[in-house]
Amino acid sequence: NASNVAFIGIGQMGARMVKNLLKKGQEVKVFDTIPLAASSVPGAKVCKSAGEAAKDANIVITMLPTGDIVKETLLADKGILKGIPKKSLFIDCSTIEPKMAQELSRISKENDVRYIDAPVSGGVTGAEDGTLTFMVGGADSDMKEAEPVLSKMGGKIFKCGDIGAGQIAKLCNNLILGITMIGTCEAMNLGIKLGLDPKLLTNIINVSTGRSWSSDTYNPVPGVMPNVPPSKGYEGGFSVPLIAKDLGLAEAAALSCGTPLMLGALAHQIYRALILNGYGDKDFAVVYEFLKGQKK
Ligand code: NAD
Asked: Which CATH number among 3.40.50.11540, 1.20.1250.20, 1.10.1040.10, 1.20.140.10 corresponds to the domain 168-292?
């Protein structure tokens, strides 16, 4: 492998992405503020700071919760900029504000580092299987350089436009995801309350017009599909605060261009209410439990 790769943020997505890099022969240096998370990937070299991981790296990848955290990880005392060699490529795979992506690009440029935004879709199952979709914003040449590494973690890589365009595509996708998950939960809850078998109802929806990723890949009802967070007590997966964050980012983006987001705004408030009702550490499909009215 030509590249020395550093990976910062070894959470639900990052850990699985690093496993695929390692499986395909790519050595990786990792850092996470939670030491247990950082050491969760056998074979990766665990570092004590983002700066240490970035030292000598041609490519630094971040998979962090929010834009503010990515910025902090870049600029901190022992942050990425303290270690990353000049002209190296910084790939942010987190879902963040398109405007923040532009700011990170500017800061990177001032430090002679190249930057692209490359948020992903596919969830923890896509990260596990190495089938993520990457949505890239930035220069063509930088995307070309990123491709061999990104393709070890995902099958589809789309060039969306300039810096921030990957984030715009991602926010549009998650706007649909946040809404369809709630719709699927409502329909499943209704059918089950009226006596239908959840697996039968799922089979029908999945060959009918109500089908979506939320019904056929990540069904929210426990026991309908094996190996998805809803069948594991809604542990792991895509947390409620993260989908709430994405819908908030979509709303802010919509405000900036005067576009109405009616269902998006409602979905955003539903996830925020879930957080206040004690579901903040659960996978976002837990909206099904919320609607069902079952006590946690
Ligand atoms: P996560 O919370 O599971 O993981 C984030 C990791 O970053 C944690 O291990 C945390 O300890 C670490 N971290 C936080 N601050 C840090 C810092 N300053 N330095 C180093 N490490 C730090 O989140 P996730 O589900 O893996 O999501 C990561 C990003 O990917 C988010 O932007 C999310 O919106 C996006 N995303 C998530 C999914 C999903 O299904 N989970 C799918 C697509 C995109």
From this structure: 1.10.1040.10
